[in-house]
């Protein structure tokens, strides 16, 4: 190995990327490195989609390597791809979904569903194929948040399979598409759990990289069914900095640990309020809660999101922030969280996929 190649490898090994929490060498992303007299050829392949951040990644790499490359030309190739990652208890990934990610909270009212749909849209913007499953059988909100017209129903194939409803470039499925919006679902726990399994297994997802599952709050039947019957690549916990929310978030984390589901990180929502008139910032629900719980459980804090009137209005209006205001600072924060999430997942062990189910297309 030449001195120049050793220097380049050393520099790459010291370049910690925030999306990964480690360097490209540790992440196994270095596909090829050739140091020639007049040029350096470097190929990196990451385990997460990079379409929305390729320019930034290349800039970081060129800036870091410039001192050790000298006068040589750097020919840089950066790509990303998503593979199934190992779910809990040796389960195999779904045949049409590489990675199922649960978005959960210990209590209601922390903005979990809003976070879930915006993360799905942010992953879509990175070049991933993404779906959203609304697992709140009793109080589905995803159809409204994604702007599905009233009365929207999924197409049925072979009298048993649902064709997901497309919204903002996402595959979506929800109990809200199957019942009238004013009719409550009055089911006991076992029937609700069975309904969730039908939504997961009888939906013809379109070869997704990620399926984001918006769980109802708490640690009841629905959550346990998902954790025991559905292959989860990992879970994300949404909380506010408020002490009572953190207490319930801990219960959610403990539940996932007990069923061997990896907690990929914590999202702190409503972390700070910025006055729209004067710009004054105020931590209405306290400060540092997300960092504390992340530290207690050795799970990364994926990001902190503000308490924002526009985020609420956009979700209620069927145009979530990442779709409605893609250039806004709030959308940028959601994209950062999505990149951290995808990056951390890419470091997990690779899993296997179930043998494809044969379905006759109509």
Could you characterize the architecture of this molecule?
The longest helix has 18 residues. This protein is an alpha/beta fold and 362 residues long. It is globular. The relative contact order is 0.17. Helices cover 33% and strands 21% of the residues. The C terminus is likely disordered. Helix 1 crosses helix 2 and helix 5 crosses helix 6. The chain is built from eleven helices and 15 strands. The protein has two domains: 78 residues, GMP Synthetase, Chain A, domain 3 (2-Layer Sandwich); 259 residues, Rossmann fold, CATH 3.40.50.300.
Q: Predict the CATH topology of the largest domain.
A: Rossmann fold
List the total number of helices.
Answer: 11
CATH architecture grouping of the largest domain? 3-Layer(aba) Sandwich
What's the structural domain tally? Answer: 2
End-to-end Cα distance, whole Å, is 58 Å
Q: Give the low-confidence spans.
A: 355-362
As a whole number of angstroms, the C-alpha radius of gyration is 21 Å
Indicate the proportion of strand residues.
15-25%
By CATH's scheme, which homologous superfamily of the largest domain applies? P-loop containing nucleotide triphosphate hydrolases
The beta-strand count equals: 15
**Which sequence of SSEs, written as H and E, runs from N to C?**
HEEHEEHEHEEEEHEHEHEEEHEHHH
**Structural class computed from helices and strand pairing:** alpha/beta
Molecular shape:
globular
Overall pLDDT confidence? 88
Oligomer: single chain
Strand order of the largest sheet: 8-9-5-10-4-11-12-15
Please identify the top-level CATH class of the largest domain. Alpha Beta
Main sheet?
Answer: 8 strands, mixed
Share of helix among residues? 25-40%
């Amino acid at each position: 190995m030449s001195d120049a190649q050793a220097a380049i490898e050393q520099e790459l090994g010291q370049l910690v990327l925030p999306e990964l929490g480690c360097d490209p060498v540790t992440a196994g992303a270095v596909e090829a490195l050739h140091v020639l007299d007049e040029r350096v050829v470097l190929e990196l392949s990451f385990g997460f989609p990079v379409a929305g951040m390729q320019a930034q990644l290349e800039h970081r790499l060129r800036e870091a390597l410039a001192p050790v490359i000298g006068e040589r030309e750097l020919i840089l190739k950066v790509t990303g791809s998503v593979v199934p990652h190992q779910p809990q208890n040796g389960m195999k990934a779904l045949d049409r979904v590489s990675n199922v990610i649960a978005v959960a909270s210990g209590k209601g009212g922390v903005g979990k569903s809003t976070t879930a749909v915006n993360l799905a849209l942010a992953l879509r913007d990175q070049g991933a194929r993404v779906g959203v499953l609304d697992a709140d059988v009793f109080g589905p909100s995803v159809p409204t948040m994604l702007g599905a017209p009233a009365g929207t129903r999924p197409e049925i194939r072979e009298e048993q399979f649902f064709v997901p409803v497309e919204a903002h470039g996402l595959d979506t499925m929800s109990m809200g598409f199957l019942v009238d919006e004013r009719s409550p679902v009055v089911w006991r726990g076992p029937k609700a759990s069975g309904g969730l399994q039908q939504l997961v297994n009888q939906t013809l997802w379109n070869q997704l990289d990620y399926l984001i599952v918006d769980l109802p709050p708490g640690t009841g039947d629905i959550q346990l069914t998902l954790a025991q019957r559905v292959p989860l690549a990992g879970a994300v916990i949404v909380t506010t900095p408020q002490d009572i929310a953190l207490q319930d978030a801990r219960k959610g984390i403990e539940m996932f640990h007990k069923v061997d589901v990896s907690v990929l990180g914590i999202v702190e929502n409503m972390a700070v309020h910025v006055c729209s008139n004067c710009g004054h910032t105020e931590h209405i629900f306290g400060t540092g809660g997300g960092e504390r719980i992340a530290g207690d459980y050795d799970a990364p804090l994926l990001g902190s999101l503000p308490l924002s009137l526009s985020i609420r209005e956009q979700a209620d209006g069927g145009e979530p922030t990442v779709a409605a205001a893609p250039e806004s600072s709030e959308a940028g924060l959601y994209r950062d969280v999505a990149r951290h999430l995808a990056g951390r997942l890419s470091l997990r062990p690779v899993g296997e996929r179930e043998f494809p189910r044969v379905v006759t297309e109509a």
